[in-house]
Write a structure and sequence with these properties.
This protein has one domain (76-343): ABC transporter involved in vitamin B12 uptake, BtuC, CATH 1.10.3470.10. 75% of the residues lie in helices and 0% in strands. The protein has helices at residues 13-39, 47-57, 67-102, 114-128, 134-154, 161-186, 191-200, 208-226, 229-235, 239-244, 249-271, 277-289, 293-317, 326-347. The radius of gyration is 21 Å and the shape is globular. One of its GO terms (molecular function) is transmembrane transporter activity. It is a multi-pass membrane protein.
Length: 348
């Protein structure tokens, strides 16, 4: 297949025109949501107090808040809100890249077994009491799962989307089995609750350290992914079409998969396993601005940030004073969307 004969994706002028407005609305929504979400909780804090506190930290104006109120804003709520925004942005970007590389609309960052690998590492530390931090163990587990997936996919020769997906499913199944085995043999007492919270995703333990880890990962690994829009557009033509455009398909696919896995592993290490963000947000944004990846990647990042901020706010307040893992909220929203996409794909 040559470039001239390859079927090029078509995006309309309306899609192009909607992108700047969509980006502006999402940025405004994120800014307002940071303030609004900071006011929601057991302690009564007004929006103007949050704004004054932030401006004071920036050296502008003066905040009359008590030390307790300052602590609630800066030690509890803002670190959690910002972590949710960064994790949501990163997972959404990973979802866009995964769907493009595998040409599978149902792909998300956990398709390569990354979530299961991270779960094995985290649960092993939690139940065995190994002297390693849970985030570090989860990160190592995610990378190990990626290595296993790529090695398994290459057994058949060239790395292709279909073999990569199948290998990821196999690694995911093995990882899930190992996690269950660890829990069955070793988990006791309160460790069950801690493990369950991690497996379902939770931002309850977020701190400014979490913000730092997630932000550094998003900057270092997310930047090359955000810059890969033209390459991903070429992948939409199929491997032959991309190769005809001069792209070394196998090498580029492997490199982007590795970067995606590194970013996912770093995000999972601070948030636990949060599903469906990388699956549903790219599709939602694609419906508004079309499928051109130079627009889809940054707008999906903004949409992911906004979505996970409010999903986590619901998770910590909807059953107040009890808190539920944020993964339950994203799954309750993402599950029906996933079923719709599956049905739509079968009827296509």
């Amino acid at each position: 297949m040559t470039v001239a004969t390859a079927k090029r994706p078509v995006w309309g002028a309306q899609d192009v025109a909607r992108a700047p407005l969509t980006g502006a609305l999402l940025l405004a929504g994120i800014t307002l949501s940071v303030v609004a979400a900071s006011t929601i909780g057991t302690a009564d804090i007004a929006p103007q107090d949050v704004v004054r506190s932030i401006l004071t930290r920036l050296g502008i104006g003066y905040s009359a808040l008590t030390p307790l109120q300052e602590g609630i804003i800066w030690q509890l709520r803002l670190p959690r809100i910002v972590t949710a925004a960064v994790v949501g942005a990163g997972l959404a970007v990973c979802g866009v890249v995964m769907q493009a590389l595998t040409r599978n609309p149902l792909a998300d960052p956990y398709l390569l077994g990354l979530s299961s690998g991270a779960s094995v590492g985290a649960v092993a530390v939690l139940v065995l009491g190994i002297g390693v931090h849970v985030p570090a163990a989860a990160f190592v587990g995610a990378l190990a799962a990626l290595g296993a997936t790529l090695a398994l996919a290459r057994l058949g020769g060239r790395l292709s989307p279909s073999t990569t997906v199948l290998a990821g499913l196999a690694v995911s199944a093995v990882g899930s089995a190992l996690t269950s085995l660890f829990i069955l043999l070793h988990a006791t007492g309160d460790s069950y609750r801690e493990i369950l919270n991690w497996l379902l995703g939770s931002l309850a333990g977020s701190s400014w350290s979490s913000v730092g880890i997630a932000t550094i990962a998003l900057v270092i690994a997310g930047a090359p992914l955000l810059a890969s829009g033209r390459v991903l557009d070429a992948f939409a033509l199929g491997d032959s079409g991309a190769a005809a455009l001069g792209i070394p398909v196998a090498r580029v696919r492997t490199a982007l998969l590795v970067v995606t896995a590194v970013l996912t592993g770093a995000l999972v290490s601070v948030s636990g396993s949060i599903g469906f963000v990388g699956l549903i947000l790219p599709h939602a944004v694609r419906l508004v601005v079309g499928g051109m990846h130079r627009r889809l990647l940054p707008l999906s990042a903004l949409a992911g940030a906004l979505f996970l901020m409010w999903a986590d706010t619901l998770a910590r307040t909807v059953l107040d004073p009890r808190e539920i893992p944020v993964g339950i909220v994203t799954a309750l929203i993402g599950g029906p969307v996933f079923a719709y996409l599956l049905a739509r794909r079968r009827s296509a």
